[in-house]
Amino acid sequence: MKKEITVKLNDKSKSGIAAGYPLITKDSIEDISALKEEGTLIKLTDKQGRFVAKGYYGNQNKGIGWVLSRSEAEEIDQEFIERRLIEAMRRRRDFFNNPDTTAFRLFNGEGDGFGGLIIDYYDGYFLVSWYSEGVYSFKEQLVAALHNVAEFKGIYEKKRFDTKGQYIEDDDFVAGERGEFPLIVKENGVNFAIYLNDGAMTGIFLDQREVRQAIKEKYAKGKTILNTFSYTGAFSVAAAIGGADKTTSVDLAKRSNAKTIEQFSVNGIDYESQDILVMDVFNYFKYAKRKELKFDVVILDPPSFARSKKYTFSTSKDYTNLMKEAIAITEDRGVIVASTNSASFGMKKFKGFIDRAFTDLGKKYTIVEEFSLPPDFRVDPKFSEGNYLKVLFVKLG
Ligand code: SAH
């Protein structure tokens, strides 16, 4: 049994929580000092002591916990977790039945009714990401629940809250049978090599599935593609399979080279016919301008914040400049795929950054396509901040 304490909501936040807002913030409650041990269940009442909701205490970014239920009678126990899992799996029935896509998000935090808890599915393996120490305290219950209601080969985990001894404990293995890595998963028929036991990232960002598919099906054939901040080159692989003339992948991280070679190779593509460069994107822009290189498609998918030896990049300050650099090396009528995963601003502001770049350069453009999170990354309609992904296909001229 988990410990439960009662905490009073202040008047300002009570109606929001009652109406469905899932995040418990520091300034929504009256007496923060009552919260001591992460993972403690919290009963939230109004100032008069009337029940509003229940949830748990766990420090994560902007919040100190998540609402789990608005029914006083509902116990937060293993059966509760089982019900949420069953519902999440039911919602993704089409994904389970699709042999062309064997990796997807199975449980998306508050979007599936349990903030702080993410489960991704990789061809029979579950990868559980814990976003706070508080949610991690549900581990035993979650694993037992998965054994009861789901079929899997094995379970791995990422403790995203643990900044010190991160990702090294026992290869992140939790239960079932160990996988053999790389595990080859499919996404719309494209192969990806995945590692569940090798640090924070697995080799693919599943939230870009629809963007990769669009590039492969509609934008790649016969084109030259520049993929900046390319990581394992997932966009390049999609483009090459879609018939690109040539792809150029640029990433600062040394290991991106071997990782990108691997992703091409598991798809039977000769990586030597592609360019894979380990360098700073901002230096590459300079190089490309000097050499008067231009591309039909330029993909921009920077991290929200990055610091290299020479440059600091923060999406909300520098996206307009990044866009200008890209415009300078994109062919007339070419396409820039502008992406950001920054949760700190919405689509409208993002469009503003793009517009500013073209206006400053006195150039014309049209937005031809727009993407946000795919359906397996389920968003709680009461928590639109959860829909962090913004991708625009911008055509020059
Ligand atoms: N677009 C990728 C994900 C990008 S993750 C995909 O679809 O899979 C962000 C990447 O940016 C990381 O691999 C990081 O090494 C790289 N990066 C950060 N700053 C950079 C810089 N200044 N130049 C080049 N790459 C950079």
Automatic annotation (TrEMBL):
<dbReference type="Pfam" id="PF17785">
    <property type="entry name" value="PUA_3"/>
</dbReference>
<keyword id="KW-0489">Methyltransferase</keyword>
<dbReference type="GO" id="GO:0032259">
    <property type="term" value="P:methylation"/>
</dbReference>
<keyword id="KW-0694">RNA-binding</keyword>
<dbReference type="InterPro" id="IPR019614">
    <property type="entry name" value="SAM-dep_methyl-trfase"/>
</dbReference>
<dbReference type="InterPro" id="IPR015947">
    <property type="entry name" value="PUA-like_sf"/>
</dbReference>
<keyword id="KW-0698">rRNA processing</keyword>
<dbReference type="InterPro" id="IPR036974">
    <property type="entry name" value="PUA_sf"/>
</dbReference>
<dbReference type="InterPro" id="IPR029063">
    <property type="entry name" value="SAM-dependent_MTases_sf"/>
</dbReference>
<dbReference type="GO" id="GO:0008168">
    <property type="term" value="F:methyltransferase activity"/>
</dbReference>
<feature type="domain" description="PUA">
    <location>
        <begin position="5"/>
        <end position="90"/>
    </location>
</feature>
<dbReference type="InterPro" id="IPR002478">
    <property type="entry name" value="PUA"/>
</dbReference>
<protein>
    <submittedName>
        <fullName>Class I SAM-dependent rRNA methyltransferase</fullName>
        <ecNumber>2.1.1.-</ecNumber>
    </submittedName>
</protein>
<keyword id="KW-0808">Transferase</keyword>
<dbReference type="InterPro" id="IPR041532">
    <property type="entry name" value="RlmI-like_PUA"/>
</dbReference>
<dbReference type="Pfam" id="PF10672">
    <property type="entry name" value="Methyltrans_SAM"/>
</dbReference>
<keyword id="KW-0949">S-adenosyl-L-methionine</keyword>
